[in-house]
Amino acid sequence: MQLSATHLWMIPALPLLAAAIGSLTPRGGRKLAAGAAIAAMIGAFVLSCGALVTALAQPAVHASANFTWFALGNEVVRVGWLLDPLTAFMAVMVTFVGTLIFIFSLGYMKEDRNFTRFFCFLSLFAAAMLGLLVANSLLLLFVCWELVGLASYLLIGFWFHKPAAAAAAKKAFLTTRIGDLGLLLGLLWLYHVRGSLLCYDGGAGVLEQGSLTALAGTTVAGGFALSTAIGLLIFCGAIGKSGQFPLHVWLPDAMEGPTPVSALIHAATMVAAGVFLVARVYPLMLADQALASVPVHALTVVAGIGAITALLGAAIAVAQNDIKRVLAFSTVSQLGYMMLALGVGSWVAAIFHLLMHAFFKALLFLGAGSVIHAAHHEQDVRRLGGLGRRMKATFATFAVGTMALAGVPFLFSGFWSKEAVLHAAHAWPVSSLPLLVGLAAVVLTAFYMTRLITGIFLGAPRTDAAAEAHENSAVMTGPLLILAACAIGLGFIGTPAWPWLQSNLGGIVVEPESIWEAPGLMLLSIGLVVTGLGAGWAVYGRRRNVNASSVDPLAQAAPGLFAVLAARLGFDEFYAATFGRLNTWVAALADGLDRRVWDSLVSLLARAGEFSGVLNREADEDILNRGFDRTSATVRGVGQTYSRAQAGETHGYLRTVALAFVVFALVLLLGGVR
Amino acid sequence: MIAAALTTDSFLERLPVLARDTVTGRLPESWRWMAGSLLEIIAILAGFGLLFAYLTLAERKILGRIQNRPGPNRTGWFGLLQPFADGVKALTKEDVVPAGADRVLHFLAPVVLVAVSLLGFAVLPFGRHLVAVELDTAVLYFFAAGTATELAVFMAGWASHNKYSLLAAMRALAQLISYELPLLLSVVPVVLVAGTLSTTKIVAAQGGWSLGFVPHWHVFTPWGAAGFVLFMVAALAESNRSPFDLPEAESELIAGHLTEYSGFKYALFFMAEYFGMCALSGMAVTLFLGGWGAPLAQLEWIPSYAWFTAKLLVLLLGFIWIRATLPRLRLDQLMKFAWKFLVPLTLLNLANAAGWSLTAGWTGPLQLVRWAVALALVAVPFVVLGRTLSAGSAPRTYRFA
Amino acid sequence: MSPLQGCLLLSAALFSVGLVIALARSNAILVLLGIELMLNAANLNFIAFWRFHSGAAPATGVIFVLFAIAVAAAEAAVGLALVIALYRHQKNLRLQEATRLRG
Amino acid sequence: MLGSGILQGLLVTAKNFVGSFHDPARYTTLEYPEVKPALPEAYRNFPFLVCDNATDPLGTLRCVACQICEKECPPQCIYIEKSRDKKPDATGKPQIYPAVFAIDTSVCMSCQICVEVCPFDAIKMDQVFEVATTDRYAALLLDRGQLTKPNTYFHTIHPTEAAEVDARLAADRQAAEEKARVAALAKAKAPAAPQAPAAPVAKRDQTPESAP
Amino acid sequence: MTFTFLILAVIILGSALAAALRPNLIHCALLLVVSWLGVAGFYLWAGAEFVAFAQVLVYVGALSMVVLFAVLLTRQSRAELRVDAPETRRAVWAVIAGVAVSGVIGAAVFATKWDPAPVTAPEVTVRGLGLELMGAHAAALLLLGVLLTAALLGAVVLAAPDRPEKEEKS
User: Fold this and answer.
1) E67 and E15, same structural domain?
2) Per the domain annotation, does B8 fall within a domain?
3) Chain B to chain E, count of Cβ pairs less than 8 Å apart?
4) Nearest-angstrom CA–CA distance, A364 and A366
5) Which listed residue, of A44, A56, A140, C63, carries a Cα 20 to 30 Å from B344's Cα?
6) E26, E33, E55, E57: which to substitute to probe chain B, counting the most B Cβ within 10 Å?
7) Which pLDDT band, with edges at 50, 70 and 90, does E166 fall under?
């Protein structure tokens, strides 16, 4: 089943159509909205598989189909669709995971009154995400990028009546907006330089060799290469969207939205958009590698940011008590991993980790959702516990997800993708810091996941809510089982022994080699995972007679560090302190300026107008009117005299006609007309 | 033209013209025209005066006979002197003029009426050379004169200073005006086919015979027959005769607009009525019955004026016959009959005649088609219109009679 | 005094008599009749010119008079209908009292 | 169909017109002054006095002025004055006769009561209707002379009744003669019979003067 | 100037002037009828027979009837008929206007030079008239028909008293 580039637009079109249907159905049309959304996702998934088959037929080719969107004077803006293995794999992943999450949210959101509106927003988000994937023009990509941001705002703030959710939605939107500003500047600069934003346009595209050499060739202020500057600006967008180091603060708060939203957007797809973006413009990022005189290479910055975020995320995750907050910070650290992989030069490993992470992180989030749904929206780990016996399926799938995330060797996909990243980091010639950070993050990840899983499922239920929890219906546990199967099975497509994904994704055939070729790093990482798990089990595994208010053992061990980590290293307060106050100060200034300066100016003008009005009235009154009245009086006078002639007396008329005739005839006669 | 025809016609034919020429021969040239026309006038007056006289007698005798009684036979042998007796009576009777009457108009009314009804005779072609005035627009002149009678009727009605006579005059006028339309419309087809307004040319157009014995009279064409019947019905109404003698309906309005008249003026009114009747029948003869044409070629030897008078008498007897038979119409029936029955039929007849003249060229089988269509156009509307108009009035059943 | 001039004088006289009637008499019907007279005067002119003036066109004068007569008849009919309507409204026919339609 | 009624009407009048010339049943007018109408026998107008002998009408009046008719006449239009002397009637028996016998024809309503009550069949109803006069009063009061008409006239106008009356009178006369003869016989047979009271009143027995 | 023309002139003008003076409305109408007859006579004298008889048919036949009906329908009392003498002031103005107009036209008539009258009177036959009417003036004729019908209906509507709608007989 082939799907050529020109028909790629159908993939985003279906969910968009479903979104439109969802928006038009009244609140009661639940079955219609949900059905349309799910059907659209299944249709998109089928089309994506077709696209995948076509892409894998010639993996090295970037098949594009461009057309003119609109012409502005002689400026013609062209957009188009791009089909290459990266797009296809991402589209399959997004549609597959999206379908499962849609089905899950059928059960999760059943009681919610705005059921139809929820599915409409979900479809809108899916359409935007798929649009972003298939876009060949960076402008179209940017449009879909903004739509995704909008969708995330709508979905996070879905329960807008909760002030926390509304604030979180605004925070998410604004912080990603800051990142997008960098992306926009990059695109404008690129458009200014290259005159087109099409990635692949039969040679004239931005990411093609001709433009890359031109970009790399020119240097900008500060000695940077033009491609580096544009690349870093585009990377700012990625930082914002994927919640990297400086702009990661919105992701934990985004957990206010419903759990399927968190699963879909803040685990699998949207946050992955940043990584996808960098992967998409990777040739641009690589352009400055060859230059030596450049103070810094773009990818080095990426790797640095990635490493910092990975370590930061993992550390904070350890001290969080809310299930979704732990998973959020875990996502932040995993995205740091992907950025690290991109930075160290292997975008294939990054995408491989991204795909795997999408599956097991979605699984974890849905598991958490199932737990929350069962425990009457109780999200605090300390108030749960002992759910293993009550929710066997959720416990089993959650365990699979945890092991995949932690990177339990051989069986789980997380291990292979993390292995690939660590290998790439190991091979990075610039410095070995990312490798060390990566390994530390592995330990921390294993630790906080065991803390989380033991907190929720083992031990005794610490509150009655936890006690009454019972397994959810099939519609929620079904997707969990499927995702668990993927979390296990999918890992094998990228193992060094069978690098199917790597060769197909990169377009270059990778030689399969036995995993035991350079086993050192692998064994090291396995060891770290085991130590992490063991530490976690040791601290939290066997705690007994624990109730909701008992203090966390770590807190007892390092109260200061634990409190700092629990407070998310105070980034929110810092930002509030700095940018928040700056903002309020500027607002106050503008208000004052407006109230005093402009206001007085306007009132001045008003008085001037008033004065001239008065002047005008006086002049008009005595000069103009009197003159006008007199003339109209004369006209009326004349009219009256004439009307007296028109006295309605027919005889009079006839007489005047006759006399007039006589007069004219006389004139004619005497006038000598012969 | 007359001189040429003179030689070929028989002596009787030429007799009247000869008489006139011998009389006017003695006068100087300039007076000859005047004398000739005077003679003609005298001839017409005498002829039709006598006809009027004996028409009244014939009417009373025939009515009598129809009602199984002898009719006037006291005065003179078989009542032949009756008209003169009436004349004497009329003269001797006291001529009463109502006090408030408008004396001038009262006197003028009968005079104008008689004068106007006499005018019609000027254009009737009594014989081959016997037409008083050879007018190109003879038919128009005839009917122009005809319409003036209404004025006289009004004068009579108004001048007698009597509410009933004024009302009766109005009714008479309404009748005259409504029947003037079908009268004129039934004449138009003849003018259309003959192509001229002059009576002599119309009579000439009806000359000749086809198939040996059927003369080319208009009455023998479908539209002609219909036209003739319609013309006669309208003529009946126009001269206030028989079914339409509403104006002097004795039972209702005493003598209508003639109530205040007595003596000779009264007789004048009757004379005018009879003159009108004769004029209209004369015109009918001219237009439809082939004027002075003989019905058969073999009968050509009988002088033309004899044929004219014969046909005229037949028509007049028809008038009398109808008077003896038909009851008087009510005013609304009269009006409805004129406007809803006669006018549509005459218009249709006009169309029929137009069709007839257009299809004159057809020969052989087409001739049959032409006749069939023309006949259908006459019969069908008559039946349909008749049925629709008389839908309500089923023949009256007398339960107790 | 050629016959043509005679006719023209006659029609002028008739026209002015019509005008006098129309102006002098206060009864609406007579005013209408005055106007009829003026129309007749005009027709008289046409026939006079047709008869005595060596005009080229054959009988336009006559045809014109025919149309004029017909139109005058129509005009008179409507005029008299108006007079009747006026009478119904004003109960008398004195024209000088029918002055509602004025400036 | 419209007009069929008229045609039928015309046909009827035509039939009448033609019929009046040859069909006597249709042409029934009598030219009155010349042709008198055949009056029906029972027609009656004013009464008249019957006299037996046309030559001496007043002499042979049947009327004996018994004044019954005068009394019976409803409008009292008969006036009779008896005569002083008697005159022999038809049978020779001296009778009174009316000196004056007048009938006021303007009053008489020809009810024929006088005829019915007249014992002597002296008054009968006449069939004369041409009685117009110029004088309104005197001319209408008919005296004796104008009233009497001979019995022969009576036969012409009421033949049956006249014959019947004559027959009856003849029968009475024979009865009277019979009785007279019997009386004569009786008188002859019994001349000794005492003198009968005064001679019986003689019944009216006349011998009609039968003149055809 | 021929004798008949003078007679006709006298008839026409005489009856018209008489009509102007007569107080009785009916007499005025009838006098005007005489004047119309005079005009018809003039047409006959001028040789246009068709027009003459058309004039008689239309004016004397139909129009006089309409006028007389109008006079009767407006039911003036007989007294009012009598007393209808024109107010003097308006009459004077009327005469002045009349005389002025006729004077001016007369002057114009005498002022202009007329070319001599044609010897033979122009001959118009009914057939010629018919062809002319149906030929060049066919449209005018049809329009005239429409005009007359419209005038007929209009007059009826105007003059008919607005009887209340006859209610439907049950």
Assistant:
1) yes
2) no
3) 61
4) 6
5) C63
6) E57
7) low
